[in-house]
Design goal:
This protein has two helices and five strands; from the N terminus they run ααβββββ. By secondary structure, the protein is of the alpha+beta class. It folds into two domains: about 30 residues; about 90 residues, Beta Barrel (OB fold (Dihydrolipoamide Acetyltransferase, E2P)), CATH 2.40.50. It has a five-stranded mixed barrel with strand order 1-2-3-5-4. A hairpin with a 2-residue loop joins strand 2 and strand 3. The longest helix has 24 residues. It starts with 10 loop residues before the first helix and ends with a strand. About 15% of the residues are buried.
Length: about 130
């Protein structure tokens, strides 16, 4: 009686399946990580440093994440001033954040959490360069 030879799975097929799996895993990781924090390359603002001496931070760019507490002022030509509460080191820090009129399309609401890329201006106020709901 004749025996049949076992056909082996071609190594190129096995290599191709592994390569496709790795590509899908890398693509999934990229897309999942992209939505997490768009400002991950920007240094987070340390509220303690800000309250100690905001003048030393002038001109620098930071990221902040917090909850909008109140609308403090509004000027249609210039923008809106809000108070945002940032939680750091188990403490809540209220801070002023100015949203210029170029970002007026963003609907900021009280008690909503936002993440922003901010610049500390000459007066020590945080000026939003980009902002989004977190």
């Amino acid at each position: 009686m004749a025996r049949r030879a076992h056909q082996k799975t071609p190594s190129s097929l096995l290599f191709g399946l592994v390569a496709i799996f790795i590509l899908f895993a890398a693509g999934g990781a990229f897309f999942l990580q992209k939505g997490a924090n768009p400002y991950r390359t920007v240094e987070p603002l340390k509220p303690n440093d800000y309250f100690e001496n905001a003048n030393s931070l002038r001109g620098n760019i930071y990221q902040v994440e917090g909850v909008i507490m109140n609308a403090l002022a509004q000027n249609p030509e210039k923008g809106r001033l809000f108070s945002i509460v940032i939680t750091s080191e188990s403490k809540k820090w209220p801070m002023p954040i100015f949203v210029p009129s170029k970002l007026r399309q963003i609907n900021l609401q009280k008690n909503q959490s936002y993440r922003a890329k901010v610049r500390v201006d000459d007066a020590g106020i945080l000026v939003a360069e980009e902002i989004q709901k977190s």
